[in-house]
Design brief:
- This protein is mostly beta strands.
- The chain has helices at residues 3-6, 77-87; strands at residues 18-21, 25-26, 31-32, 37-43, 47-51, 62-66, 71-73, 90-94, 97-101.
- A hairpin with a 4-residue loop joins strand 2 (25-26) and strand 3 (31-32).
- The protein is globular, with a radius of gyration of 15 Å.
């Protein structure tokens, strides 16, 4: 486990990270090869991910319920900044339900 992966403690800390598949993945529409790059969109019964656009046709596929053991966190500067940013977010239960709060002194990370 890489040092960055030790910082991922909560499910919402995965959101926005770039990962690479360690084995072929498939959904109801297509089969995706090993080594495909994905962006994690959320976690519900596993990772929900969206692939980077295909180089030849530009299509992007979504896949869900992927185990974190089936992907590898890419070692890029953007991921390190996003892990730090995600670690400062907090989930708050209020009178209107649950929402995520970000301290005001933290700037969002942009691509």
């Amino acid at each position: 486990m890489k040092p960055e992966e030790k910082l991922i403690k909560r499910k919402m800390d995965w959101e926005g990270l770039k990962v690479k598949s360690l084995k072929p993945l498939k959904n109801g529409w297509a089969s995706l090869p090993e080594g495909k790059i994905f962006t994690v969109s959320s976690w519900s019964r596993g990772l929900s991910m969206r692939s980077d656009p295909c180089e030849c046709c530009g299509i992007r596929l979504s896949i869900s319920r992927v185990s974190p053991n089936d992907v590898e966190l890419l070692d890029i500067d953007f991921n390190r900044k996003l892990i730090e940013w995600n670690s400062k977010r907090k989930r708050v239960v209020g009178s209107f339900g649950t929402h995520i709060v970000l301290p005001t002194n933290i700037k969002p990370v942009c691509n």
